[in-house]
Amino acid sequence: MEFSGRLSSFPIGDLLQWAHNDRRTGSLVVRRSGREKQVFFRDGDVVSCFSDDAAEFFGQHLLVQGLVSDNTLIRALTYCQKQGKRLGVVLGELGILREDVVSAALTQQIQDLVCDIFLWKSGVFFFAAEMPPEEDLLPQPLPAVGLAMEG
Predict the structure, then answer these.
(1) Of 42, 43, 65, whose CA–CA distance to 112 is shortest?
(2) CA angle at residue 44 from 99 to 46, to 5 degrees?
(3) pLDDT tens string 96-106
(4) Nearest by Cα to 27 from 3, 8, 10, 6
(5) What is the pTM of this model?
(6) Residue 7: closest CA among 150, 127, 123, 149
(7) pLDDT digit string (tens) for 126-146?
(8) Is 32 exposed, middle or buried (0-12, 13-18, 19+ CB in 10 A)?
């Protein structure tokens, strides 16, 4: 753990700008009330974000956006479990969504997850030098400063 603190002292916008300015690579872990989000950076730009809240999983995002139905999502998730593959990959393999639609939806979900942290008035954070597997990263990073301004 190389940097840690409280969101009340270091707002998420400042943390995003810090990661960008220092061209950080690693994970910003933010925790509040039993919830946790991890924002992953490569050279200061956001390349992924995960939440432990089931309501914020990618499948739920696809449902809310009207990109898949309940039955379609269940079929895809069942296939994911059997094949050991990520949902985005399976959606393309099964012909449910085109790759560009999956990519756009994933980018939007990551933006939403990061921007939601701006609503957290309290919580703790730490930055760690860890990254998820390459297949879990966006091919086109999101500018951290742009997310900070949007938030």
Answers:
(1) 65
(2) 30
(3) 999 999 999 99
(4) 3
(5) 0.89
(6) 123
(7) 999 888 888 888 888 888 888
(8) middle
